[in-house]
């Protein structure tokens, strides 16, 4: 049998093109609808027509629309670079021109920046105790790019020991949350649940994990900014007997997470209101923190093995199994006299802890010691060092912060 390839080679290119055109006219006649019926489109209608500048005037394009061929470097930077910068840098760039100032204060840019820039900018920290609660302060990881006007938040008019406030420290915009129905305790385990993606209205939730007094039961109070009201979830956690929640928590991908004193992680699905406890198989007496590694939930522990060597264990997955261990040298140099005099150093080893961390593709683990805060990049095995704000205190709480322009709209009555 003659092959298709051999058959096609016997036909000239002109004959092949004519056959194709004939088939197209036979099976796909061009038609055009008119009041009187249908007829074939004249051949002249298929001729290419040159682009006319008048089209741009008739179409009434938006005033800020710039055709790609007319864009300058400043236009490209304004539209496609600014959304990926931290908020502090954007505040500085308002002085570039009136056009830039108008764009930077635009709610649309605030939405784009909150969805595009999600890197760790620093930590708010404070000592939280039953009898004492210090003013919050801010530790910036990049003073030139990540900062806020008032690190202690004293410019915001907060009042009431049992009141909640939601604020954007960069814009100094804040709202007071309506009173809740149940007593949340002196050190409430509350998480701000905010998803910027597809949320141009900047709606958010507050999720409070509230243990019942003298009962191994934790219930969840949920505040919704959309309805401006609190509700009590029908889901309760009955699996935290002889344990308690540790400090704040972490929110990612619609889930709220809290560490516990029994080496477990309390998880709560905010949308579906379902809770569960994830058990972490670590040695008794060793604690870690929930953090985000490779865009997934992880539980990370750290301990000083000897000298400058620290061991990092990363647990993850539905069973929170040990994914991998990392041995790192942080260069934590101390003299023998300092080791003997420092109350936070035991038998020549440095006490250390892992801080909760949010990432955006950086895979950072944050380690806090008596003198330093280390940012360890898992992918590149790079270490950045920052000074620790005072002595390591187990009652000091660190809350990760992202330098965002996300707006806080007026809450409904």
UniProtKB/TrEMBL annotation:
Transmembrane feature ranges: none
Q: Which residues form the F-box protein At3g26010-like beta-propeller domain?
A: 160-285
Concerning InterPro entries, the annotation shows: At3g26010-like, Beta-prop_At3g26010-like
- The name under which this protein is listed is F-box protein At3g26010-like beta-propeller domain-containing protein
Q: Which organism is it from?
A: Solanum commersonii
């Amino acid at each position: 049998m003659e092959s298709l390839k051999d058959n096609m080679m016997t036909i000239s290119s002109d004959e092949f093109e004519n056959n194709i055109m004939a088939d197209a006219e036979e099976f796909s006649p061009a038609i055009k609808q008119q009041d009187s019926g249908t007829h074939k489109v004249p051949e002249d209608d298929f001729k290419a027509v040159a682009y006319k500048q008048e089209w741009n005037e008739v179409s009434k394009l938006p005033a800020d629309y710039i055709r790609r061929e007319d864009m300058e470097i400043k236009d490209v930077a304004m539209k496609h670079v600014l959304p990926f910068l931290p908020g502090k840098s954007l505040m500085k760039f308002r002085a570039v021109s009136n056009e830039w100032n108008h764009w930077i204060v635009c709610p649309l840019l605030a939405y784009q920046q909150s969805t595009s820039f999600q890197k760790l900018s620093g930590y708010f920290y404070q000592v939280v105790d039953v009898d004492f609660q210090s003013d919050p302060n801010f530790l910036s990881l990049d003073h030139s790019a990540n900062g806020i006007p008032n690190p202690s938040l004293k410019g915001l008019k907060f009042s009431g020991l049992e009141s909640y406030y939601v604020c954007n420290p960069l814009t100094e915009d804040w709202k007071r949350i309506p009173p809740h129905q149940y007593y949340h305790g002196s050190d409430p385990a509350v998480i701000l649940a905010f998803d910027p993606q597809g949320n141009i209205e900047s709606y958010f939730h507050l999720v409070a994990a509230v243990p019942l007094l003298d009962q191994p039961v934790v219930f969840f109070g949920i505040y919704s900014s959309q309805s401006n009201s609190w509700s009590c979830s029908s889901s309760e956690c009955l699996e935290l007997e002889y344990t308690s929640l540790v400090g704040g928590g972490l929110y990612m991908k619609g889930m709220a997470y809290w560490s516990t004193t029994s080496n477990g992680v309390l998880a709560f699905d905010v949308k579906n209101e379902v809770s569960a406890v994830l058990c972490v198989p670590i040695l008794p007496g060793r604690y870690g923190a929930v953090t985000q590694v490779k865009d997934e939930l992880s539980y990370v522990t750290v301990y000083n093995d000897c000298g400058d060597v620290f061991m990092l264990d990363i647990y993850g997955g539905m069973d929170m199994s040990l994914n991998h261990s990392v041995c790192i040298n942080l260069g934590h140099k101390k003299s023998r006299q300092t080791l003997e005099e420092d109350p936070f150093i035991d038998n020549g080893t440095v006490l250390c802890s892992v801080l909760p961390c949010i990432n955006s593709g950086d895979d950072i683990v944050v380690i806090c010691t008596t003198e330093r805060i280390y940012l360890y990049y898992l992918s590149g095995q790079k270490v950045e060092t920052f000074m620790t704000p005072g002595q390591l205190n187990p009652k000091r709480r660190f809350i990760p912060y992202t330098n965002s322009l996300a707006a806080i709209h007026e809450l409904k009555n």
